[in-house]
Amino acid sequence: MGHKETDFEGRGLSRRDFLKATAATVAAGGVADFAFNAEQALAYEGVAGYTVTISTCPYCSAQCGQRVVVEDATGEVVDIYGDYQSPTNSGGLCAKGAGAFQLVTNPRRVGAYEFPMTYQNQTLAAHPEHAEFASDGTGDPVIYKRVEGVSDWTAIDMATGLSEIATAMVAARGSFTAGEASGYNSQSVAFFGCSHMNTDENYLYRRMIAQFGTTNTEHQARI
Description:
The protein is α+β, with helices and mostly antiparallel strands. Among the domains are: about 40-105, Phosphorylase Kinase, domain 1; about 145-220, no CATH class. Helices cover about 25% and strands about 20% of the residues. The chain has five helices and nine strands; from the N terminus they run H-H-E-E-E-H-E-E-E-E-H-E-H-E. It has helices spanning about 15-30, 40, 95-100, 160-175, 200-210, and strands at about 50-55, 65-70, 75-80, 115-120, 120-125, 140-145, 155, 190-195, 215-220. It has a three-stranded antiparallel sheet, with no helix packed on it. It is extended and about 70 Å long.
């Protein structure tokens, strides 16, 4: 069945032209922030005091090219953008790839920064979410845990944290004896994934879930 070509508000714009213009506008707006930006891509090229390293985005199998800019004097990452010479993405990055810079700069990273700190020309007196998440200055990796019913978080060392997690998971799964109908209760545990887990982490995570024996999995993109 065909559609009747009608004018919109008497302006001589047909339905077909309206849909074409709308689709073009949406498409242009959708890629505006992630397309190749020549000014950004060349900002640090050949500039003294900065080293540009070619890398790849870790978030999916596309492996889009990235360029990572490090300030020589401080060793800090100052920018991450698409590699304009990459045949995969020609300098463009999706939302996750474009946000990779915050993996090493976001003040919300748990245990990564001491406060007060300066971020985007602003002074942050404490961690934006919980003061407990500030770095203790030792540089040792830690895990933060919170007991049910208690609002405060407690920092524990990585080895202790992993041991507690493993012990609780084994206890929750239960045991199995050959010949008995009851046994593993793996459905009492659920696993939750996030968009910023990279390809290798997702592979290992999925293997662990399968080995544990549960189908209770969810992802933040579906919540």
